[in-house]
Write a structure and sequence with these properties.
Elements lengths: L1 E3 L13 E3 L18 E5 L2 H5 L1 H10 L14 E5 L6 H4 L3 E7 L5 H7 L4 H9 L5 E5 L7 E7 L2 H10 L1 H20 L6 H11 L10 E6 L2 E7 L4 E10 L8 H15 L11 E4 L8 E7 L2 E12 L5 E11 L4 E10 L6 H11 L12
Parallel strand pairs: 3-4, 3-5, 5-7
Antiparallel strand pairs: 1-2, 6-7, 8-9, 9-10, 10-15, 11-13, 12-13, 13-14, 14-15
Helix pairs in contact: 2-6, 7-10
């Protein structure tokens, strides 16, 4: 089967040419993708895996996830020799095939055979080509990335230059998968109606979350389990200035919200939560993102309780409902002292990214 290369449109990577892979299956007979959220399978020649190409992919994808209290990689990496790529491994949720045409091993030849002569000619003609992504190649809700080039040195350079985009592509893919699984059942429509009525916004709420508090400016849901505690809240206030999106302004806003509403022990007023800003190697990070065609600021960092010595990570979005001139601050934070927190923070991130305004006008 022959597949046409398309532009990697999410990040406007220039890609063209042809990819031939007889193992690609299309249609309704695909099994669901298997594996654990955050797992990444890299299929490449052993010499390249042990060399510079493997090192750069490993360093990018398994780098420490920011704003977690303990070191955890963004993705857990599994290397697969192309000669041992069996039907079970083909169905994993995240696959990366990487090869360069200056590699002469038997395993590399198996990967190079995936590319047509026209594809090779395109690479030789246009050295900017290096990436292709295809969903649902061997399984449903699977994402496959192909990294290729004529020379290893050139491919390594291109991957380094686009490292953050590659990571964000798979992060977004995991969030989209979580959106499907988290809300596959019957999300709590009653809480959604309360949120829409009191704060004028909508958000999908997974099964298992319970309402803690709501009023015309604040809405808080929570899921408490024996080993972890997951929280999402929404706060609304008038929008007055672009300065409200600056990092220090958002930290001050967050601390005001927490001190007013969020306590570890409601019976003790000195146990309110606050933003951790005293750990130099774990700074609060902000970045500009686009959410539903709106300008937004995403913030990540650590929280702590004022007096009880508890803490964990948080992620938030700040954005404006242009029709009503309100600023919305929506956050997810988690607590789990005895377990890894990467997938918990991905879960609450998925929930906050469902925030939208019914009937509102988006900013182009």
């Amino acid at each position: 089967m022959v597949l046409r290369f398309v532009k990697f449109s999410l990040y406007a990577f220039a890609v063209a040419g042809l990819l031939s892979t007889c193992s690609t299956e299309k249609g309704g007979n695909l099994p669901p993708a298997s594996g654990v959220s955050g797992d990444m399978y890299i299929i490449m020649d052993s010499a390249q895996w042990k060399g510079e190409l493997g090192a750069v992919l490993d360093s990018i994808l398994s780098q420490e996830m920011m704003a977690l209290p303990r070191p955890e990689p963004i993705f857990k990496i599994w290397w697969v020799n192309p000669k041992k790529l069996n039907p079970v491994l083909k169905q994993r949720r995240n696959l990366i095939f990487a090869v360069t045409f200056d590699q002469r091993s038997e395993a590399a030849s198996l990967l190079k055979a995936m590319y047509t002569n026209k594809a090779v000619a395109e690479m030789e003609k246009d050295t900017s080509l290096f990436i292709r992504t295809v969903p649902d190649v061997y399984a449903k809700r699977q994402q496959v990335m192909y990294l290729f080039g004529m020379k290893e040195k050139d491919l390594v350079t291109k991957i380094r230059q686009n490292a953050s985009r590659i990571v964000e592509f798979f992060n977004k893919t995991e969030r989209e998968r979580l959106t499907v699984t988290l809300f596959a059942g019957n999300p709590n429509k009653g809480y959604r109606d309360v949120l829409r009525k009191d704060l004028g916004c909508e958000m999908k709420i997974p099964f298992g979350y319970r309402l803690v508090m709501n009023n015309p400016e604040f809405f808080w849901i929570r899921q408490m389990n024996p080993k972890d505690d997951r929280n999402v809240f929404v706060y609304r206030m008038p929008y007055t200035s672009p300065k409200q999106f600056e990092r220090d302004s958002l930290i001050r806003l967050r601390n005001r919200i927490l001190q007013k509403y969020v306590y570890e022990d409601p019976e003790r007023l000195d146990t309110y939560l606050e933003t951790e800003t005293s750990v130099s190697y774990k700074p609060v990070l902000t970045r500009t993102v686009t959410h539903n065609q709106r300008f937004a600021t995403e913030m990540q960092g650590l929280w702590r309780s004022h007096n009880l010595g508890m803490g964990g990570p948080f992620i938030s979005l700040a954005l404006v409902d242009n029709d009503n001139r309100n600023l919305y601050y929506v956050e997810g934070f988690v607590y789990g002292p005895s377990r890894d927190l990467r997938e918990l923070i991905r879960e609450v991130e998925t929930v906050i990214y469902t925030l939208q305004f019914p009937g509102a006008t988006a900013t182009p």
